[in-house]
Specification:
The protein is of the alpha/beta class. It contains 11 helices and 9 strands. Strand 5, helix 6 and strand 6 form a beta-alpha-beta unit. The termini are close together.
């Protein structure tokens, strides 16, 4: 049995018989695989018996195929073509923290008139609120919100971005972090379980406290003022993900269970 970001949350919030059935199933399983240590901890909190049968096998990305994925097939919108932009990718929902990023961009924008912000994501419960926040921003002309971009087009945005920013409030182990690493784009993200299992602050990227716009602004500012350092971080992260977060590595771990 394998568990990802929302599985435990959905089970624990269910009513009636369903949580008990989920707990029994987890308890009887030979192995329960969590995609991150944070998810494993949530799992044990939900069903304490899983401390004996829960293991972590991280999500993965196929580095070689991702390098050529969508290459030459996607044309970026004219508004950001050839321009420096920050990129966020995530479903438009509260836990992804797009509101914090928009607030941070409004503070950064006056000092960086060439900078743009791009928000890509699946339509979600916060789509309307995010769209309204963009419209109300004094720099709305420099913010691009695009919903439901086909996955094969995402890599073109990642490869062109000056930084990938993920101010999430909660995550499992987001595939998009691994995709950003495969694209060698510098990462600035929340210091939360799952993310910190991939990114180490000051070594392979920058991590900031959750819901701290000032810290997020400072980390982005540091990057914009020293993009060479960001390139060093992203190169280190690329090497780490190439070695430890591939499907071949995950397969070996599954076989060894």
């Amino acid at each position: 049995m394998a568990l990802h970001g929302t599985d435990i949350k959905l089970a624990s919030e269910s009513r009636g018989f369903h949580p008990l059935l989920s707990q029994l199933t987890l308890r009887l399983a030979d192995r329960v695989v969590a995609c991150s240590e944070g998810i494993r901890q949530d799992l044990v909190g939900f069903e304490p018996h899983c401390i004996r049968n829960a293991v972590v096998i991280h999500n993965a990305v196929e580095i070689d195929s991702y390098q050529t994925h969508g290459l030459g097939k996607t044309t970026l919108p004219e508004a950001i073509r050839g321009r420096r932009f920050l990129l966020n990718i995530g479903k438009f929902e509260h836990k992804k923290g797009q509101d914090v990023l928009i607030q941070g961009f409004d503070s950064l924008a006056p000092s960086y008139p060439d900078l743009r912000l791009v928000l890509l994501g699946a339509t979600g419960p916060m789509s309307g609120e995010v769209r309204q926040a963009v419209a109300h921003s004094p720099f709305s002309a420099r913010i691009l919100m695009v919903e439901n971009v086909p996955h094969h087009e995402v890599s073109a945005y990642l490869k062109a971005a000056c930084a990938f920013v993920l101010p999430s409030r909660r995550e499992g182990l987001p595939f998009v972090i691994l995709e950003a690493a495969a694209s060698k784009v510098p990462i600035i993200a929340s210091d939360i379980p799952g993310v910190r299992e991939v990114v180490t602050d000051g070594i392979t990227g920058r991590l900031v406290p959750v819901d701290r716009p000032a810290a997020l602004i400072q980390a982005i500012t540091d990057h914009l003022q020293d993009e060479k350092q960001g390139a060093i971080f992203s190169s280190r992260l690329f090497e780490l993900v190439s070695a430890e977060f591939t499907w071949a590595h995950a397969y070996e771990q599954y076989v060894s269970l």
